[in-house]
Amino acid sequence: MGRLSAKSREELLALLEQLVQRQPDIEPMVELLIELPLALPAQEKNRPGRGKERTVHPSSIESQVASAFYHAGEGWGAASRVAAELDRLCDIGKSFAEAGEWANAQVVYAAIAEETVIHYEGLHDEGQVSWILGVCAAGLVACLNAQSTLPKREQVDAEEREELLTTLFDLWKFGDNYGGIGVDVAGAIAGNATARERKRVEAWLREEMRPGQYSSSTWHNRSVVDFVVKLKQAEHSSEEDVLKEYRHAGLYKELAERFLQLGRTNEALDVAQANLTESRDVTWFAEQLLKLGEGWREQALAFVETRLGEIEPALQGTARDFTGLHTLDTYRRWLSEKYVLYSKAKQALEMECARFQAHPDDGTYRSVRSVAQVPEQSERVWSDLRPRLIQVLEQQGHWGALVSISLDEGEVDQALAALAKMEQQPNTSLSGYGYQSAPGHYHIQVAKAAEERYPDEAIQLYERVVERLIAGRGRENYQQAAGYLTRVKQLYQKQGHQPQWHAYVTNLRNSNKSLRALKEELDTRGL
Description:
Elements: H1 9-22, H2 27-34, H3 42-45, H4 58-72, H5 78-98, H6 102-119, H7 127-147, H8 158-178, H9 185-192, H10 195-208, H11 215-234, H12 239-248, H13 252-261, H14 265-275, H15 279-291, H16 297-314, H17 322-341, H18 345-358, H19 362-372, H20 379-395, H21 399-408, H22 412-424, H23 438-450, H24 455-471, H25 475-494, H26 498-511, H27 516-524
């Protein structure tokens, strides 16, 4: 490249002409680069009107973006190739912005953004390109921010300003639909738009509102109203006008939150009691009340208790309403935690017992046990309650839960008995399971716990697991089997039963002579 500096202007033009003839696709890029403010003389930098002057046509940028997408090809690597090329185009916009040529910077950023959105969904890994839209949005926000600092003769005209706001609004919509672009477009528009422009943007936003109370509609409308609120706040609208926006959109959680922020807690509670019914919103609001101090504790608890009382009768006879049952459990679990925290042990135990009855397993059993053993409870509470819980689990055949509970409480004999019951159930047949399956997992747990007091039973359990692992084939299974065989060997030796061990392992090897990988694993461990 150093040799070019020795060429005359005529020679350089001739070289460029030859290059364009050989590579016609680069002509738009050459025309674009010609406009770059690479080394302007002082008088050109200070020339009036440069900030609003457009010398770049959008088509020159659009063709480069389209070319980037075309030449990137397809597949998972295409997005990164596109992003790299678009990043270079964004540098052109940056160069114009740094030179104070805001109109040209706007053209570059807007054209890249608009053309990229068109091609966006055609990519396999479009997330790699979304950050380019964030760069464009930041560049356009900089263009908008700069206008108020420029002399009138340097500001873009009304039509170009309208285009700037429109492009920014489209980028905001894109971010709202695809998870954000990392730029506060709403704040930039609200802070820089004129009163007339804010009214226009507000009208665009109201057209974006979606009907219905579906979660997707609520999420979208929340973003729209938050944008509207920023516009209202920029106009110094009253707080009542802001509250009206949330109420009109049916965003009652946000309305209640706003009342809380204003210290109008009673009004927030009225809104919550009348409108909040989703369990996550109900418990969220109750938590906010608790944060206000002891004076609001009873109201917080009563709010969740009321919602619980409303849903319990509605779920009677609807065992398959899984959403309702989850909501019911959420309220009971939340209340139990708070009752324990606020020394209401009796009420907490009632909640946990109800949770157990609705879904008896080792998890709900442990929750009941935990609450039944808090200091406020009588010592007899748990001793009286435990047999009834165990009986429920036995009657309903929850042997896996009983194995887990027995091991947890150090009752190895009961764990062995529960495991035996589990083996008798058709749906937990031992045939064909691996270590990670439910029966195999329980067998290993019980075997480890039984090693000290019940070594013979532990050996039998390990040997069954080993047989199934070998039957499952594969080196990973053989490695696990060899690990358990090491424990079996140690148990035989501890009891002085070396002959039995040698007989067992010899038979195991003879029965599986064709499994070379198994032999290698056994040899590695000296078995």
